[in-house]
Predict the structure.
Amino acid sequence: MSKPSRPGIYGTPPPSLAPPLSNPTQFSPQMPGAEALEMQGEATLPQMVMLAPSGTIERRYAIALALRALVPGAALTALAPNDKGGARLAGELAAFGCTVASASRRHHRICTAPRPRTITGLDEALAEGAPRLIATLGLWSQPGIFSWDRIDTGSALLLEQLPSLSGSGADFGCGIGVLARAALASPGVRRLTLIDIDRRAIDAARRNLDGPRTEFLWADLRGSAAMLSGLDFILMNPPFHDGGAEDKALGQMFIRRAAEALRAGGTCWLTANRHLPYEGAMKPLFSQMSLRLEAKGYKVYEAVK
């Protein structure tokens, strides 16, 4: 059990809105290298500041984990944009039995509450947000992962176009492993590396697809894909939001990382929303680029290095 010596932080609360912390432990599952709040001992943290997730189930789960980890009476500060869960924060904390002080600033709701000795509804919130088998997919997942309980349209369209694959490849932004599962159905695939910034996605993908042909990396591709080279193929449905705001540069960065990791003649299969300007990023990096499908607001590309 951890000692209650360092405060905890979850995500990146705006410094102008959150109380300062001295040498906090990071617990966000979307920051590679962070500690898992699920594994933190009960009543061990002296303070927690949280940028609360926008999804209701995910947010209640994270708040429940934080309250469980705090020493009774220790302060939880939870904040979120008003239109991304902030308007519900005070009520959700009160439902856990907290006495809540609430303030509004810069379009955020900022709630502070001491951890009550008895947390109402703790087990229910933890169960609702925990990993589970999605029967319709035959895959394990968890609320908070991208498209956690369904196959998103872009991935479904890419699956329709995906040929038999061979050699060594990677799935950039793998999620729970929908695209990777299809790739592994090709017997010629010798090795597949699944990479995601979300630890929960990597945990689910490992549970779904662990085997002698797979490896899993909890990593941020904005850093580097230098650990990968000479790949025969890469699959990706790149993200285009960062912190809730659209960021076209994310997908463009995924494309550059794919070009770095592929061998000459290697293939990148990409699906993306129609409005995203990825063609300009792909053309100078690949010798051939083919639009394989355009439907339902999405494009599917095959690009050869």
